[in-house]
Amino acid sequence: MKIFNNNKTSLSSRIFYYMILLVVVASILIAAVTILQFNKQSRDYHEERLERKESHLILNLNYFIEEAMIDNLINLPQDKINEITDIHEIPFEIYSLQGQLLKTSLDSKLAMNDIILSPEILLFFKQGNNTRYVENNDESKYSKSSYNLIYSKNQPVGIMHMPYFMDDSLSKKELKAFLMNLGIVYVNMLLIAFVLAYFLSNYITKSLTRISQKIKATTLNKQNAKIDIDRTPKEVSILIDSYNTMIDDLEESAVKLAKSERETAWREMAKQVAHEIKNPLTPMRLSIQSFQKNYSSDDKLDKTKLKDFSNSLIEQIDTMSSIATAFSDFANMPEQKKELLNVTEVVQIALDIFNKDYIEYSVEEKEILTLFDRTQLIRVITNLINNAIQAIPENRSPIIKISVASTKRNVVINIEDNGNGISEKNRNKIFEPSFTTKSSGMGLGLSMIQSIMLAYNGSITFKTKENQGTIFKMVFPKKIK
User: Fold this and answer.
1) Strands 144-152 and 133-136
2) Is the pTM of this model over 0.70?
């Protein structure tokens, strides 16, 4: 089971936890219902037993009173009271209708003829209630006390009190044994539920996991595979169909976008080429017109004028040539020609072109190997150094520092200058094609450098402060020895 980021629990984990929770809650509820049912059965049993004992006791007592023709309950022989108690295995007491104790089979310290029945019981029977009166004895060893009228010749002659002790020890023992067995069953069920919940949650979310992996791998600039999963639930199948439809739409949109981007790029390129070519053509036209106006076939050939005219044309032609070269270099992205180079030596070769005292070069190691195109690496270094030189104002002593270092996996080249820096508004445009802050140039240098670095799995970044300088940092893979 996988846990997603941001502290969010995965769907498979939730299914697992909920299934286990369901089993645990069901087990607790069944145990609670079992205990309640056992207690109810125990109460019902004792209620029925009390009524049964009470009924048999009254029948036996009434039968004896009628047989012996006893007209007063005080005349009941004590040995008969004890005999009835032994037969039914339950003690009892007999009271007069006024609540005086007449006979008892209990070990009582009360004197006979004492009124010990509560007024509540006496009032109950005086109101003509023929039903039994039962009260709970929370403070006595007997759990219940039942009171019934004793009749002689269909007339009430006394009140019988029968205390009853509810012995639940057997029931509690049975309940304990049942709960222990039930607990063993529940533990086994819980273990089985753990296994089932684990595999079931993974099975349910397996297709969703594959879908999420496919969605994560979906990009606009490459061919995306459709999802084909057999035996999926209906809801997941709908999701897969929606994803596959989205892939079709995405591919169609990618084709349209690529076409639109190419058309836009060519339009921008054409506009830029036209603009840059027009710039030298205008002075060329003016020079020719001026030459035609001032030169006559009858005049002697003025070598100075001709030289000036030729130099002007050559200068403009060189400008147009440099424009064409810049666009050609930008259009021809570097092929990934990889050769084993010592970066420190190649950078030194690039620096030898400049031969400036204010350029400081430092290296951490004499040999840092990489797989790179020598020409392209020199091209990158010289472009950045040219930019650094041009960024330093004339009224400031130039300082340019180049350092080459390496990490465990990468080569790191820093080029630092003390120039004007890059303004805040231009920092996001610095690597865009045709963007430049110079009065001359095509603005393709940094864009070209970025393209070269990306082609070799590298990167170029910068840090700058206005009026203090800029540091360009290039990072690309080095050759592990």
Assistant:
1) antiparallel
2) no
